[in-house]
Amino acid sequence: MHKSNFKIAGLIIALSLSGLLAACSGGTSSTDGNVEIGGEDIEIPYIGAGSTARSLVLAQVLEDVGYNVTSTQVGATGPMFASTAENKDTLNTSGWFPATDKAYLDKYGDDLDIYDSDNVIDNASLSLAVPEYMDDVESINDLKDNKDLGKSVDWTIVGIDPRTGIMKNTEKGLDDNDLDKWDLKKGTELSMLSELQEAYKNQDPIIITGWQPHWIFNELDLKMLKDPDKIYGGNDDHINLVFNKDFQAAHPAAYKIATRMADDWNKEDENKLMKRIFVKEENAEKVAEDFVDDHTHRIDKWKQDVEKK
């Protein structure tokens, strides 16, 4: 009789410990439960080469569990941050912090939630960039009072949309670092890349606003110039998810999936997909779909405990 009672007590204790260990291990325990979908409509604005691949992969995964996702390519960082701040159903995968997008965080930060427990991309770098064949230019300081270099490129740095963080930092850097002879040409990413490729083909000198990861650095032999005055904030920038401040409450499962993706994404994923989209010119949505199909073991972890609709 007493032995039976001891066995029952021991079983109860064992089951209790088992439940506790499951909770601590992060498994599918009752402490977590299933994460609900919440609101079904989600918007993901993204910028060209800057975030097409990761944005469309995330959109594909969210659609697989029942969300209606609108993915929209926008022309610049400013509109992307504005739409994220204004709409509770919006997130983007393109926050460059702490330096590049600081101005947008200062402007819209009260309406945003930055996920920085882990970075989508570590060590994202920005600077001016030139082809490797320009062997007499290694640093931004090499532009100062360099008449031969200035004349060879008409004292022009080829940039992109003025509503981006890299352009704002470049303009400020030119004003603050004795580079006032230089002009920053505004345009689009596409027009900048077109000029770069034409110059590269003819082995002509050219200076552009550059950032990595970007597919062009895998296709052309380019170098980022040293930035001794930290015009671009040094080498500490990284890329983070940016949510509207009410997004997590409105879409709990989407928030869970997106942050798990951020913890698992890497530059290798980015570079492979960017090459298919921008070099091989494959359909971007098909490339994202292929990635999801080819990485089911990873995607299943992103979706773990999510109530599929």
TrEMBL record:
InterPro entries: ABC_Gly_betaine_transp_sub-bd. Its main location: membrane. Residues 1-22 form the signal peptide. Gene3D superfamilies: Glycine betaine-binding periplasmic protein, domain 2 (3.40.190.100), Periplasmic binding protein-like II (3.40.190.10). Keywords: Cell membrane, Membrane, Signal, Transport. It is found in: Cell membrane. Transmembrane segments: none annotated. It holds the Pfam family OpuAC. Residues 51-293 form the ABC-type glycine betaine transport system substrate-binding domain. This is Glycine betaine ABC transporter substrate-binding protein. It comes from Lentibacillus kimchii.
